[in-house]
Write the structure tokens for this entry.
Amino acid sequence: MASSSSPSSSSRSELPLRKIPGDYGLPFFGPIGDRYDYFYNQGRDEFFKTRMQKYHSTVFRANMPPGPFISSDSKVVVLLDAVSFPILFDSSKVEKRNVLDGTFMPSTDLTGGYRVLAFLDPSEPKHDLLKRFSFSLLASRHRDFIPVFRSGLPDLFTTIEDDVSSKGKANFNDIADDMYFNYVFRLICGNDPSDAKIRSEGPNIFSKWLFLQLSPLMTLGLSMLPNFIEDLLLHTFPLPPFLVKSDYNKLYKAFYESASSVLDEGERMGLKRDEACHNLVFLAGFSTFGGMKVLFPALIKWVGLAGEKLHRELADEIRTVVKAEGGVTFAALDKMALTKSVVYEALRIEPPVPFQYGKAREDMVIHSHDAAFEIKKGEMIFGYQTFATKDPKVFENPEEFVAHRFMGEGEKMLKYVYWSNGRETDNPTAENKQCAGKDLVVLISKLMLVEIFLRYDTFEVESGTMLLGSSVLFKSLTKTSYT
Ligand code: HEM
């Protein structure tokens, strides 16, 4: 197993201390230069790869976008290996205050004037309260997880089939937004929006609101838009929140009216009703809707590209278990070892949220596979997860999608799967910053595969990249004769 070459924690303390290589360049020009390399001259993965090779190190210094004038300090220590990365999960070592999006924080005007949960450090008392609020919401909806998700899938796949037969292809990313919105609204509120207009406008409003928050980290990839214009529009000044204010208020109102029982519980726990509701909108729009927008295209892309042999194996497993268990239940999903492994492998090879940040709380020494590095109190640490979970010293054939990777003995490697801002073997708590919806995310990923292979024997896709993730076009779907 590739992991045998990583040092144990006792041998790590004997690693040579090395000065962190790399520099930040001149003020202003250094960050802009790195920003152009990251978005335009090299692209994201090449940006990290070339520096890793140049410095012969998976730990080095660089500026992370956006830089001037959106972030006042873009200097970070980059971590690219599986050993150094988990320092970012240790709340006693790193501060997570306002670092959700990196070296800048979007205006709180986009979240009702509140710093919502994901921006709070666990040392802030509100973090504990809001995280427990999110756990209580999930616990109260547990019974709905499966039926509510499954109820949205027939419409989704009917639209995909119609587009494939009429246009020869179906754009999954565009089509799926409605399903995500309906799912998250029904999951959180327990019912559909009473105002039908919100149902049709909701997905676009959430997408626009997400764009306003995350545009400093995006490139549109439009060939007719010169790079320097895009850079000026997206990466130099924050887009003004008023562009989405009235739309956001419509969504806020819809959640406020429909989620009464959840908000009652929030008040009972000690939250103000409006603060609880702004947090719900964030949970719905950023964490869940935004998360699904990157999660599912990547999952479907990797499974689609893996081809017919894997499709046959998945279909066999899923149909056999569903038949034996008498339906799609929690117990049935738990028995699908290959389906589970495929979900974890997709989360490993293309983590939906690949950037993690934290500020050193104190002077400390961190370790990569082959060296130790000193980090000073107050320095920003940044982990690029796409490289950390494809660390060749931990995973064999890390660039390959190995569907069976996490089956049997392979389950031991789950501790190196970091997508949830924590190890897959750990659990979210009120004291850490791990995704509160971790188990739900794995569950709905499995449900998506179950639905696909109960309906189809195989399917073909074409994939590309867009904004912050993958894009997927369905090219064909072969309906099953299985009943
Ligand atoms: C759908 C796909 C999802 C993905 C890819 C995802 C991913 C993540 C990640 C990476 C973080 C850590 C952010 C950071 O601090 O660096 C996070 C935090 C969080 N997620 Fe998720 N998430 C998803 C869905 C959900 C769902 C369904 C819920 C609950 C309804 C949820 C609730 C949360 C909460 C409350 C936090 C903040 C935790 C804290 O601040 O302590 N997420 N999520």
